[in-house]
Design a protein that fits this description.
It is a single chain. By secondary structure, the protein is an alpha/beta fold. The chain has three domains: 3-232, Rhopdopsin 7-helix transmembrane proteins (Up-down Bundle), CATH 1.20.1070; 320-399 and 443-518, Alpha-Beta Plaits; 530-770, EAL domain (TIM Barrel), CATH 3.20.20.450. Helix content is 55%, strand content 12%. Strand 11 (545-554) and strand 12 form a beta hairpin. Helix 18 (587-609) packs parallel to helix 20. The radius of gyration is 37 Å and the shape is elongated. The two termini are 69 Å apart.
């Protein structure tokens, strides 16, 4: 048990004992608890950079309470407690004021200046009305008891201040964290104690107060100490949200209580013939104030709902509804839809509070860029939109005749070789383009890459991208952002927002951090992609999906050490259906199907020849919470040892994903190995090579392209990998000369057409049985 919990238990024990002690002993207990609260609050002030002043004030308040209680203890011990409103009472008043001010400061900066005032005002007014009829009105009408009760009368009034401050704090925060519960309990305990003390003095039972007062005052200091010592960082957003139904029920109750209590008291006064003008004036005034506050609250709610209807609450920007209203009236100009690249990683790693802070910063930068050029809106999540003025429309409405549109591949060298994760082939002519590549984006024009450099809307997109590339400091971290942009030139046709979304999708598919201008072919591509997804969904339930295998050999001996599993579908080449599977989420069942087929095929190969199998895993698969279980089940069902399975991932998968790292660490403990594909084309961070769960480094085929730096670069990567205890595999080996160079450079293994093309399992079995290392022919390969 932590020290804080032991301290809380000890304090609760003292709270239980305090009512049993004599008056002097009670005051000593109060002093001890108040001193502990003061020390805890001062410690919190020193480590809380957000609101240290509030905790300093709370420390000063509880220190004042400790001094006052010590003075009362001495007075009771000497048998000479001060009568009436003494200097000690004046100091106690200061303590209450300091505590209330500290609570108000804890709510400062959490919303509009008057946020929570209505809620707190309604509660306090109701409390005033109840206090008047239950406490002060009987006292006024009781002859001879007013004199000498000034001290006892002040404390319930001060409690109203504390109630106002703590209710406002909870209303502003909108959540009940443990810290706020402690503060609510503190105010409730001292209120009960003071009311009990008032009643005791009114009845002539003595100045030290009844047992319930002793318990309440003790608990007050203990709860303040617990709130100050609770180890939750400020503004984390954690805690139970105060339900709107509960708030509504509270308002209804308060609305009913005020007139009901007023009417009952009025009737009682009439029946007892003790009617006085103040008996009507005061309750009617309080009820009127409550009514005005509720009207203000209703008006504020209506204004807020109106703002929310057209405004985004987080950033204050117009929302999607407002944007659609603008688009309905717009006939010229351009629409830009923006989406932050990989924003999900920020929420996953730093939390939604940091993500919200980042979005507010992004909104501020976009305001500065868009000012004078159009209108800015937030569509939701990390997506924004700019309705650019007609002056920012691309000149001529299209690309320059002498400068054709620049096209980019959707996913770099796409998945034409059938790797489930959409990675490069590792095969094809060295120095040439990857087999199966074509114009990617199918008509998407890269506005940021050329061909439209003179267009104002492209300049606006470039300014947006440049502004967001500036580092952002959030939650103690420096973040570097990029943004993808879809552009739709406005005309009289409907569906501009949907078309801009298609262009945004093309920008994401083309590698992110760019702008793409919508063309009609994008819609056709999207429809074709949807059709592919539906066909693939059916194919997964049949035998249409097959797996071929490509040898990976030990370079010095030519022995087939492993084979890589590559997916095939008779209907379409891999570069056509794998991206569709990734986008739709079908990559998860497809990947599991390939994994199971590969494990079944490799089980006899490993038993007879010691051959391992490499299976590509997509980032989407690794985000599944049961991925490790899926792999274990496939190994168990096939009888393949875990040591014979290699999971192949890309570099980007390892960056910023705790779940991925956990999956891979768990499987590596079983014996499964992890290979990083296409090293040198992605993040290429030395830190992840050192710290993350990797066994094999696959060097990208681009390193084999002719050039003076090729061999030194390969040697550097091989030496680095070996120094870290990693095995190296070079992809794209096409000739015996390349294989010989790799042997001289110290590379361990090679993969490529020189050793064999992807082939069905039966041909791999024949190859392994002959042991000759003969080249395999992929009958489907061009």
């Amino acid at each position: 048990m932590s020290n804080a919990r032991w301290a809380l238990l000890a304090g609760l024990l003292l709270v239980a004992v305090a009512p049993l002690l004599p008056a002097a002993g009670q005051q000593v207990a109060f002093a001890v608890l108040a001193s502990a609260a003061s020390v805890t609050a001062v410690r919190r002030a020193r480590r809380d950079p957000a609101r240290p002043a509030a905790w300093w004030l709370l420390g000063a308040a509880t220190a004042t309470g400790a001094v006052c209680s010590a003075a009362w203890a001495l007075a009771f011990a000497a048998g000479t407690p001060p009568a009436g409103f003494s200097v000690i009472d004046a100091a106690y008043v200061g303590m209450y004021l300091l505590v209330g001010t500290a609570l108000l400061m804890l709510a400062a900066g959490r919303g509009p200046r008057l946020a929570g005032v209505v809620e707190a005002g309604v509660v306090v007014c109701t409390a005033m009305l109840l206090g008047w009829f239950a406490l002060y009105d009987p006292l006024i009408h009781e002859a001879g008891t007013w004199h000498g009760m000034t001290g006892a009368m002040v404390y319930p009034l001060l409690d109203l201040f504390l109630v106002f401050a703590v209710v406002r704090l909870v209303a502003v925060v909108g959540r009940l964290t443990v810290k706020h519960v402690f503060l609510l309990l503190a105010v409730a305990s001292v209120t009960v104690a003071d009311v009990s003390y008032f009643t005791s003095v009114f009845r002539g039972e003595g100045w030290h107060g009844p047992a319930i007062s002793a318990a309440g005052w003790s608990l007050f200091h203990l709860m303040l100490s617990a709130a100050a010592g609770y180890p939750s960082p400020p503004d984390t957003g954690q805690g139970r949200i105060v339900p709107s139904r509960g708030v509504a029920a509270l308002y209804v109750t308060l609305v009913v209580i005020n007139p009901a209590v007023t009417a009952v008291a009025f009737l009682l006064d009439l029946s007892e013939r003790e009617f006085a003008p103040i008996d009507v004036m005061l309750p009617m005034t309080i009820t009127s104030v409550v009514g005005m506050l509720l009207v203000l609250r209703l008006n504020h709610t209506q204004q807020r709902l109106a703002r929310l209807a057209l405004r985004d609450e987080l950033t204050g920007l117009p929302n999607r509804v407002q944007l659609e209203l603008w688009l309905a009236r717009a006939r010229r100009g351009s629409l830009l839809v923006l989406d932050l690249d990989d924003f999900k990683h920020v929420n996953d790693s730093l939390g939604h509070t940091a993500g919200d802070a980042l979005l507010v910063t992004v909104a501020g930068r976009l305001r500065a860029v868009v000012h004078g050029h159009g209108q800015l809106a937030r569509l939701g999540g990390d997506e924004f939109a700019i309705l650019a003025d007609p002056a920012d429309r691309p000149a001529g409405g299209g690309p320059a005749a002498s400068d054709p549109p620049r096209r980019r591949p959707v996913r770099g060298r796409a998945a034409e070789n059938g790797r489930v994760g959409g990675r490069t082939t590792g095969n094809g002519p060295v120095g040439g383009h990857a087999a199966g590549n074509g114009p990617v984006g199918d008509g998407a024009v890269d506005a940021a890459g050329g061909g439209r450099a003179d267009a104002p809307v492209t300049a606006l997109a470039d300014r947006v991208r440049a502004a967001l590339r500036e580092p952002v400091d959030v939650a103690g971290h420096r973040l570097h952002l990029t943004v993808s942009i879809g552009v739709r030139r406005l005309d009289h046709s409907p569906g501009a927002l949907g078309d801009a979304d298609l262009a945004l999708y093309a920008a994401k598919a083309a590698g992110k951090d760019r702008a793409v201008v919508y063309e009609a072919a994008l819609r056709e591509t999207r429809l074709r992609r949807l059709a592919i997804v539906e066909r693939l969904r059916t194919a997964l339930l049949t035998d249409e999906i097959t797996v071929h295998y490509q040898p990976i050999v030990t370079l010095r001996t030519g022995r087939v050490d492993a084979v890589e599993a590559l997916v095939r579908w008779q209907a379409l080449p891999p570069d056509a259906f794998i991206p569709a599977a990734e986008d739709s989420g079908l990559i998860v069942p497809l990947g599991e199907q390939v994994l199971r087929a590969a494990c079944r095929a490799a089980a006899p190969w490993h038993a007879r020849h010691g051959t391992s199998v490499t299976v590509n895993v997509s980032p989407r698969q690794l985000r599944e919470p049961d991925f490790a279980v899926t792999v274990r089940r496939a190994l168990l069902d096939s009888g393949l040892p875990a040591t014979a399975l290699i999971l192949e991932i890309t570099e980007g998968v390892l960056v910023g994903s705790a779940l991925t790292t956990a999956h891979l660490n768990e499987l590596r403990q079983d014996g499964v190995r992890v290979a990083v594909d296409d090293f040198g084309t992605g993040y290429s961070s030395l830190a992840y090579l050192r710290d993350l769960p990797i066994d094999i480094l696959k060097i990208d085929r681009s390193f084999l392209r002719p050039g003076p730096a090729s061999e030194p670069m390969i040697r550097a990567v091989v030496d680095l990998a070996h120094s870290l205890g990693l095995v190296t595999v070079t992809e794209g080996v096409e000739t015996a000369e390349q294989a010989a160079v790799l042997v001289a450079l110290g590379c361990d293994r090679g993969q490529g057409w020189h050793f064999g093309r992807p082939s069905p399992a039966e041909q791999v079995t024949a190859l392994l049985e002959t042991g000759t290392g003969a080249r395999l022919i992929d009958r489907e390969a061009p």
